[in-house]
Each structure stands twice: as C-alpha cells, then as structure tokens.
C-alpha cells in the first residue's frame, strides 16, 4: 500500500468515525427530545404522583411509594405498621402483589388482605394472625420477585400468599397496560440504547407471539409462557430455601360484555394452576368463587375507563372469605 493511499485511508477513516459520532449524538438529541415530549404527556396524566411516589433506589423496582406519605406506612406500603420481629404465638402471612392486593380503588380495611386478617382473628383461642401486604400498583412479576427475595422474609412469615393478576407477565416499562408508571419513573441514561432495546424487545415479541391470540392477557401468557413458568419455578425455589410455603392466588379479570359462564380465559387459569401445582405450590383460584356471582356485582366501576382488573369492596370480601375457607380446609394455618 502506497504512502499516499495510506494517508487517504486514514483521513477517510477519521471522517467516517466523526460521522458515526455525529450520528450518535444527533440521534441521542432527537430521541431525548421525543422522550421529553412523551414524558410530558404522562406528567399531565399523573400530575401529583411525585408527591407520594418516587424513583426507587433499587433499579429493578423502578418506583415505589414514599414512606409515611398519603396513607402508606414506614416501608412504603399501603398497610398498617408491623415490626420485623413477630410476637410469640403469632402466625404471619405476607401478601406479594400489585394494585389488587394493595386494595386500589377501595378503603384499606376493605381490601382482601385486611378482611382476611380480621377473619383469621375471630375465635382463635389466643393465637394471633397478621397479614402483611407488600404490594405496589403496576408491579409485574419481575418486580414482585424482588419483594419476595429482598423484603418478605424480613418479617419471618409462616406463609406467603402470591397474588397473581393476569397482566403480571408484562414488561414493567415496554408494555402499555400496566407500565405507564414504569415509563413515568424510568429515566433512560442513554436514550439511543433504550430506543434500540425497545425495538429489539418488540421484534422478539413479534416472533414469539406470531401465532398467539391477540387478547392481551392470552397474548402475554402465550408469547411469554416460558418466562411465566420460569418465574413460578423461582417462587418455588425461594419458598424451599426459606422453608416457607407459598399459596399461588389467581385473580380472574372482568371481561366486558361477558359473564363468568362465558369466561374466555378459563383455559389459561387451568394452565397456570397446572404448572404451579406441578412445581409444588398450593393454588387458590378465585374464578372458582367469582363464577357464582354476577361480575358487575363484584367489580370496581370506573367513571373514565373499563376496569377489568379491580374488584370492589364486595369482591374483596368474597375473595377473603374464600381464601380463609381454603386455608382452613388445607390445614395451612
């Protein structure tokens, strides 16, 4: 190679490198501006959230509620205060979940964990029961696993109640149904990397879900079934490590225009029960009791959108009583 040609190649290489760097910088600026515009739309929807919620120190959780704010306890959960050390003769249950376990849209005392706690403490012959809620609205399974591993066993529980909603396999940032809070509090460090990650995520999802039913909950469990099974195995592994039984509680959704006699997700409930049972978890499926009621009687009615996930106070009461009967029947208390 001649000296002259070598110099031209060096100059061209430098120009190419500068062009690549300029392209990255410009792309980062454009994507940052797009992110700000999208974020401002979320700000208008969730204005005031920063008063009682925060970016969590643990990046796996993304966000959490501020301790001792807006009715949340010193640990940032919508519950009463419980010390880590339990009194002698006390049976403790820890509930892991999302907005349903948190009792969103109803009073705290009306939520199924608190109704269950009161029910357990009737005619106990001196034994005390505590039901401790570790639940945050919008959390997916991957976030709830952090609560199980990092927080649940600080309370020395005798039983874990895993509150499973059918949107729990969702990605905490990329999926729309329960990830708006994730996007609101997630701040990409490098917007170009975040953009590429999102594109790759959706590309892989398109391949995984090519033959899946488009209904959201069915699609999640079809495209991400391997992840669902893997996460249930993780729950069981943690249960075994701590020698603490886990009850896998499945919440049905409320389908618009359908009664539970025509519930389209019964097959999905069966699959979840089957895999959880095979892993050695006890399973309680609230579909078994909700099917005896008109769904409009037990669902929360939103003024602005159709709420397919949240029971009203009556639904929580029915759930708590059914959970109580099942726990007693299976000698888990």
Helix content: 40-55%
Q: List SSEs in N-to-C order.
A: HHEEEHHEHEHHHHEHEHHH
Q: What structural class results from the helix and strand content?
A: alpha/beta
Low-confidence stretches: none
Largest sheet: 5 strands, parallel
The CATH architecture can be named as 3-Layer(aba) Sandwich
User: How much strand?
Assistant: 5-15%
Radius of gyration: 24 Å
CATH superfamily: SGNH hydrolase
The geometry reads as elongated
How many β strands by DSSP? 7
What does this protein look like?
This protein has 333 residues and is α/β, with parallel strands linked by helices. The strands form two sheets. A five-stranded parallel β-sheet has the order 4-3-5-6-7, sandwiched between helices. A two-stranded antiparallel ribbon has the order 1-2. The chain has a single domain (52-329), classed as SGNH hydrolase (Rossmann fold). The chain has helices at 3-45, 49-52, 99-102, 112-120, 141-150, 180-185, 191-208, 216-223, 225-242, 266-278, 287-290, 295-298, 313-329, and strands at residues 53-55, 63-65, 90-97, 128-135, 159-165, 246-251, 282-285. The chain contains 13 helices and seven strands.
Give a short summary of the structure:
The protein is α/β, with parallel strands linked by helices. It is built from 13 helices and 7 strands. Helix 4 crosses helix 13 and helix 5 runs parallel beside helix 9.
Main attributes of the structure:
single chain; 333 residues; alpha/beta; Rossmann fold; five-stranded parallel beta sheet; two-stranded antiparallel ribbon; 7 strands; elongated
